[in-house]
């Protein structure tokens, strides 16, 4: 075991504080990663404050991890010391079920093992990226291309793949009209990726406050959802809507913006349940879908795509001592567009 410094929430809703944790010794298929940057995801806040249900404490959040390999196990074949790598939202799965064999480990039938706030198949609690080092099986480690700097690459391990996966799955591309609901940590990546895929991109946000940003990021159009005229003007406009917000929406209103056979894909996860009049789906044969990150192969595909198109996250680099302040600013929508921790400051 190796002792490393980390930032942890000691209890639900408690401020995160500096502590130490134990990392396992490197096993034959493991890589030891010197973490250099860790993104702050809204999911970290949901879990640290038990917004999604009972959690495991102390909790070291962080599933947007970028760093460098410093040790490899005896059977490792994919990586060597010095490689630039990333770790996303999961660190293991059964690898035997239909989903795992199809490269969709995120939907593992036995249950994928989260990078933090989870218990691995070995019975050990997982701790995430707000720490100096992490030990991960090479099968759940991805290579960060040289064209991406590690700080802007870190958020791609969640925000990037969470938006890339549904955009690819539901056919965003030339000739398609795609709307992105919300321009935050997830939404700004959805805009960049949808634009790079060749789609016509519209941002739907509560106000026009971030309109200039949205257009610079690649949006063709920008509308305020607080204006009722938006829903009248855009009725039947879109092939695909990707909702990135973590607050309940009027799903009937957003479904009305789809063309026949269009899809509203949700990647944001509100803490509260939603209600839905099924006639808003039946009329027009529309689809209401969900999507959760992507498999390991798709995550690598996303990183390669982003490197090819010069896509990184828009970040605000912070010191570890600013994590609690950053959490409050995320809740206040006061970040453009992803906080990233310089883990050298832990």
From TrEMBL:
Keyword set includes Zinc: yes
Alphabetized Pfam families for the sequence: ADH_N, ADH_zinc_N
Keyword Oxidoreductase listed: yes
EC number of this enzyme: 1.1.1.2
Keyword line: Metal-binding, Oxidoreductase, Zinc
CDD domains membership: CAD1
Segments forming domain Enoyl reductase (ER): 14-341
Domain of life of the source: Bacteria
GO molecular function: alcohol dehydrogenase (NADP+) activity; zinc ion binding
Cofactor section: Zn(2+)
Catalytic activity: a primary alcohol + NADP(+) = an aldehyde + NADPH + H(+)
UniProt similarity note: Belongs to the zinc-containing alcohol dehydrogenase family.
Protein name as it appears in the record: alcohol dehydrogenase (NADP(+))
Organism: Streptomyces griseoviridis
């Amino acid at each position: 075991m190796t002792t490393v410094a980390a930032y942890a929430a000691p209890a639900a809703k408690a401020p995160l504080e500096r502590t130490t944790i134990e990392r396992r010794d490197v096993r034959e298929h493991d890589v030891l990663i010197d973490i250099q940057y860790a993104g702050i995801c809204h999911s970290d806040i949901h879990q640290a404050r038990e917004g999604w249900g009972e959690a495991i404490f102390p909790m070291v959040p962080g599933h947007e991890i970028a760093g460098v390999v410093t040790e490899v196990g005896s059977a490792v074949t994919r990586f060597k010391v010095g490689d630039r790598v990333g770790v996303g939202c999961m660190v293991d799965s059964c690898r035997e079920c239909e989903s795992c064999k199809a490269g969709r480990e995120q939907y593992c039938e036995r249950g994928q093992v989260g990078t933090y706030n989870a218990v691995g198949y070995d019975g050990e609690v997982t701790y995430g990226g707000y720490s100096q080092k992490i030990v991960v099986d090479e099968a759940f480690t991805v290579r960060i291309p040289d064209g991406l700097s590690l700080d802007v690459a870190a958020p791609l391990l969640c925000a990037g793949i969470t938006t890339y996966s549904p955009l690819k799955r539901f056919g965003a591309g030339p000739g398609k009209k795609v709307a992105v609901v919300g321009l935050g940590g997830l939404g700004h990546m959805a805009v960049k990726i949808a634009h790079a895929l060749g789609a016509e991109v519209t941002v739907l946000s509560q106000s026009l406050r971030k309109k200039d940003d949205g257009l610079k990021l690649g949006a063709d159009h920008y509308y305020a959802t607080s204006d009722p005229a938006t829903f009248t003007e855009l009725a039947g406009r879109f092939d695909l809507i990707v909702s990135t917000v973590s607050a309940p929406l009027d799903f009937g209103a957003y479904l009305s913006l789809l063309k026949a056979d269009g899809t509203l894909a949700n990647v944001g996860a509100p803490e509260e349940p939603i209600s839905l009049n099924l006639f808003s789906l039946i009329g027009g044969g529309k689809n209401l879908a969900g999507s959760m990150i992507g498999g390991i192969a798709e995550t690598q595909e996303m990183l390669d795509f982003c490197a090819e198109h010069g896509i990184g996250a828009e970040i605000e680099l912070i010191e570890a001592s600013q994590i609690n302040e950053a959490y409050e600013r995320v809740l206040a929508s006061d970040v453009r567009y992803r906080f990233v921790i310089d883990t050298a400051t832990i």
